[in-house]
Write a structure and sequence with these properties.
Elements: H1 7-17, H2 19-27, E1 35-39, H3 46-52, E2 58-59, E3 66-69, H4 79-82, E4 86-88, H5 95-100, E5 107-110, H6 117-126, E6 131-135, H7 139-151, E7 157-160, H8 168-171, E8 175-181, H9 195-202, H10 205-222, E9 223-233, H11 242-251, E10 255-257, E11 264-265, H12 283-289, E12 293-295, E13 305-312, H13 322-331, E14 353-354, H14 364-373, E15 383-387, E16 390-394, E17 406-408, E18 411-417, E19 420-423, H15 425-430, E20 439-442, H16 447-453, E21 458-459, E22 477-483, E23 486-494, E24 497-500
Parallel strand pairs: 5-6, 5-8, 6-7, 8-9, 14-15, 20-22
Antiparallel strand pairs: 1-3, 1-4, 2-3, 7-17, 9-13, 10-13, 11-12, 12-13, 15-16, 16-18, 18-19, 21-24, 22-23, 23-24
Helix pairs in contact: 1-2, 11-12
This protein binds S-adenosylmethionine.
Family: Belongs to the class I-like SAM-binding methyltransferase superfamily. RsmB/NOP family.
Domain SAM-dependent MTase RsmB/NOP-type: 25-313
Protein name: Ribosomal RNA small subunit methyltransferase F
């Protein structure tokens, strides 16, 4: 393995680290790979998960919900994975979101988000409250992002597929927190993914440095006073790391670095020829860059990363509770938001706003479904929008997204077609079992759990359909299928059989 490292990369690392430390760094390439999962606390508490986890887990020291699992274990092949109870994530990659410190009620942007490891981590921190905007410039990667958000049951995310410069007018000064998990030369991933080395040889560090400079400037425009940007890469080159932050600080006097002390320190001493322009940065910038963080594969149990926490001066609006948010939007005259909690169909009637619809779409079938199957609309506090035949619950407090390439304007609820409503898989995944009036809960050891995930029809006795007989006598119809009370999809029960509604593209194979 070590022999295949690109020569240019080796020589540069020897220059930066010195021969002695480079030997330790090099030795890390021959060490066993590390594997991590992060418990999705938006769906399950850590305690509950640890009590039922079939894996051998050890805590990742820097991630509140992160754990190492052992090589040979296959968390991607367990029904709990399909219930979105955890996300498989490289341990070092969990650090940036911990440092972002997003809180429920905040407005958060994940600017370079696909495939969504960090977006789902932010979503868990928000606990469904506030606004999460996730964006990626590459449409093919956005598909994986959408799937991961749906799997994780995220209700308050908006997915964009935009060039960040096109987002500036809509989101000027809007966000409390912004994550830039920047596209980079990926040197920190050489151990995990060997084909990153070929990619490294094709793209220059300078090419990425240019992109990163732009992204940092654009993020600053979208950040509110008192807000925080976390900038991260999975590469070692100072041009993409310390140099970016030093230059940013020199251009933005209203930002300072929040020092991170649990990892290796940033290296202002590496901002020198031949890697960077010597003497190009102010003493303030150089001093602050030392407070940024380097995660070294030979010093901790994880891959190589760089993280900088940039705080903007000014009074922060702070986290806004869901109630406050509703009030703010209501007092701004937006009568489409379900401000008052009303039960059943009444809560939605007149509240749903039909947007961008080529012709009027009746919400009646959706209302009928909600009335029949949901205890209270989990999306009543959001704004219901229809794009064509598709209904979404858009998080309250979101500005108009006119002109932007919107992939998901919110939680996808389902489609309305010829007077029929078909609930989405995303709706099932975002629900709690207690929110459904009809549910089936299978043990993960029940062979029907796997058969459901494979798309098979199941034999289910009427007595197994969980329902409050005072409210819903009929077992027939849509039913929320769960594994140990955690939703995995829809089924339609009739006469002892459960017709499988698990989407073909999601099936276990
Ligand atoms: C390091 S990856 C992000 C990984 C992701 N944050 C995660 O944790 O799963 C960088 C992403 O930036 C995207 N990207 C590249 N250039 C971009 C740009 N100018 N604006 C937004 N996204 C960009 C890439 O498509 C890629 O998905």
């Amino acid at each position: 393995m070590t022999k295949q490292l690109p020569t240019l990369f080796r020589d540069k690392m020897i220059d930066l680290l010195g021969v002695e430390e480079f030997e330790q760094f090099l030795a890390s390439y021959d060490e066993a790979r590390l594997f991590g999962i992060r418990v999705n606390t938006a769906k399950i508490s850590k305690e509950e998960f640890l009590a039922k986890s079939p894996f051998t887990l050890t805590k990742v020291p820097w991630a509140a919900d992160g754990y190492y699992y052992e090589e040979g274990e296959r968390p991607g092949k367990h029904p709990y994975y399909h219930a979105g109870l955890y996300y498989i994530q490289e341990p070092s990659a969990m650090a940036p979101v911990e440092l972002l410190a997003a809180e429920p009620g905040e407005r958060v942007l994940d600017l370079c988000a696909a495939p969504g490891g960090k977006s789902t981590q932010i979503a868990a921190k928000l606990q469904g409250e506030g606004v999460l905007v996730v964006n990626d410039i590459h449409s093919d990667r956005v598909r994986a992002l959408v799937k991961n958000l749906e799997l994780s049951g995220v209700r308050n995310a908006v997915v964009l597929n935009e060039k960040p410069e096109r987002m500036l007018t809509v989101f000027q000064g809007y966000f409390d927190k912004i994550l830039i998990d920047a596209p980079c030369s990926g040197e920190g991933m050489f151990r995990k993914e060997e084909d990153m080395m070929q990619q490294w040889e094709r793209h220059s560090v300078q090419e990425f440095a240019h992109m990163q400079r732009e992204l940092l400037g654009q993020a600053a425009e979208m950040l509110a006073p008192g807000g925080r940007i976390v900038y991260s890469t999975c590469t070692f080159s100072p041009e993409e790391n310390e140099a970016q932050i030093a230059e940013f600080l020199d251009r933005h006097a209203d930002f300072h670095v929040v020092p991170v002390d649990q990892f290796g320190a940033g290296h202002p001493d590496w901002l020198r020829a031949p890697w960077c322009e010597e003497g190009a940065y102010s003493p303030r910038a150089l001093a602050e860059v030392a407070g940024t963080a380097r995660l070294w594969p030979h010093r901790l149990k994880g891959e190589g990363h760089y993280v900088a926490v940039l705080q903007r001066v000014g009074a922060s609006a702070g986290a806004v509770s869901a109630e406050e948010l509703k009030e703010r939007v209501a007092s701004a005259g937006d009568a489409d938001v379900g401000v008052k909690k009303r039960g059943g169909r009444e809560a939605l009637r007149g509240k749903g706003r039909v947007e961008a619809a080529p012709h009027a779409v009746s919400l009646e079938p959706l209302l009928a479904f909600a009335g029949e199957l949901l205890r209270s609309e989990p999306f009543a506090a959001a704004r219901l929008v229809c794009y064509g035949e598709h209904a979404y619950a858009s998080p309250a407090g979101l500005p108009e997204l006119h002109g932007l390439k919107v992939v998901r304007p919110g939680w996808y609820i389902g489609s309305l077609h010829r007077g029929r409503f078909e609930p989405s898989h995303a709706l099932a995944m975002g629900l709690r079992m207690r929110e459904a009036k009809r549910a089936l809960s299978l043990a993960s050891s029940d062979e029907r759990a796997l058969r459901y995930l494979k798309g098979e029809t199941l034999e289910v006795a009427e007595s197994e359909i969980i329902r409050d007989l005072e409210v819903t006598k009929a077992a027939k119809g849509y039913c929320l299928v769960c594994i140990e009370e955690h939703p995995i999809g829809w089924g339609k029960w009739h006469d002892g059989m459960l017709k499988n509604e698990y989407p073909p593209g999601w099936r276990w194979n």
